[in-house]
Amino acid sequence: MRLFHSGWILIILFFCLLSTACQTTSIIKIQILESPEVSLPRDIHEITIINSSLKTNLVTQNQDSDRPLPPNNSPHHTKVTHTCIQGLSDLLITSPFIDTVFYDSLLYDFGLSNDSTGKPLPLDWQDVEWVCDKTNTELLISLEDYDCSDTISQDIQYSFFHLFEDDIINRYYVAYLNVSPKAFWRTYDLTNKKIIDEYLYIDTIQWERSDNKSSKALKQLPEKDNAILEAAYWAGYGYGKRIVPSWLDVDRFYYKSGSKEIKQAGKEVLKDNWTGAVQIWKKLAYGEKKSLAAKASLNMALASEVEDQLEIALEWAAKSYLMFKRSSSKEYLLLLQDRVKVKRKLLSR
């Protein structure tokens, strides 16, 4: 019985290896622009960020002086909110639509309170103008409230496996650390005296560790303070993705077999020599072999997408699908159609 089972495993492994060796495509990661949920004014390329989240333990800035009062007595909370803003700043600066990000690291107390629902009241436009004048910007992003909760828990799990004639049951412990940040943001457009966005970003990040001993599983969890800082960073980064176009890693495929030339082009891609690969693919795309031309055309579509030439990529994908109606070609064609629409929307924001 065990011999029969092992034989089937070998057969399955053989076919897996054979399939891998004979596969005609390769997967590659490229970066594309992801559309945000909220659109900033098209002429805004410089942004100022401030931290106005510490209502009771702030460094208070006198508007008639550049000298802040002594620092507050909650350095950890201050570090957490600074880390949150750093995450936002790091995302913003990677966007091709933003040139400069100013982070005014002073902690401002504008004497604001919360409304009846607990939401912070917005900044006065006079205060927005005063902050923006310092950096000569027209758009202000303010972190106006921040809270975070964390929990540690543990449970027992079981794994089962068969060893010789015995059924083995293994008991082990799984420890969890959950950190849930809540960051309330507002984005102010000074030119039009308009609040572009107000948003409560809520997330939960979980760390999981396992061991045969309960104490060791718990010990393997990250330090709570470090986890809180990491969660704060991603709370800022996540809000940035909401308001500006940002880069996203996605998987694409290209054909690497079918002829000696297309195999060589695949090798050029691995060497990051897209120019060399394109020279080969373009020649094959206009060749007499229909199936090979369809593959080369789809590869040309990918090369065009890598260069963000989406209209050209769409033409190549359509050419490939018309020559050889593969389902994968149709899916890529539809995907490019969506990307073209998104790009037009971004350029007209």
Which shape, going by the Cα principal axes? flat
Uncertain segments of ≥5 residues (pLDDT<50)? 1-22, 56-73
User: How many angstroms separate the termini?
Assistant: 67 Å
Strand content: 25-35%
pLDDT average, as an integer?
84
Which structural class should the secondary elements be placed in? alpha/beta
Taking all Cα atoms into account, the compactness measure Rg is: 28 Å
What is the total domain count? 2
Tell me about the biggest sheet? 6 strands, mixed
- Summarize the amount of helix as a percent range: 40-55%
Query: Quaternary state, please?
Result: single chain
Order of helices and strands: HEEHEHEEEEHHEHHHHH
The number of strands is: 8
Number of helices: 10
Blueprint (SSEs and pairs):
Layout: H1 2-22, E1 25-34, E2 46-51, H2 75-94, E3 100-107, H3 125-135, E4 139-163, E5 166-189, E6 194-202, E7 205-211, H4 214-219, H5 224-243, E8 246-255, H6 260-270, H7 274-285, H8 290-306, H9 310-323, H10 327-347
Parallel strand pairs: 2-3, 2-4
Antiparallel strand pairs: 1-8, 4-5, 5-6, 5-7
Helix pairs in contact: 2-5, 6-7, 7-8, 8-9, 9-10
Considering the chains and any ligands shown, give keywords for the structure.
two-stranded antiparallel ribbon; alpha/beta; 6-stranded mixed β-sheet; 8 strands; 349 residues; Serine Threonine Protein Phosphatase 5, Tetratricopeptide repeat; 2 domains; flat; disordered N terminus
Structure description:
The protein has 349 residues and is of the alpha/beta class. It folds into 2 domains: 25-32 and 249-347, Tetratricopeptide repeat domain (Serine Threonine Protein Phosphatase 5, Tetratricopeptide repeat, Alpha Horseshoe); 41-146 and 183-205 and 222-243, no CATH class. Helices cover 44% and strands 28% of the residues. The chain contains 10 helices and 8 strands. The strands form 2 sheets. Strands 2, 3, 4, 5, 6 and 7 form a 6-stranded mixed sheet that branches. A two-stranded antiparallel ribbon has the order 1-8. β4 and β5 form a beta hairpin.
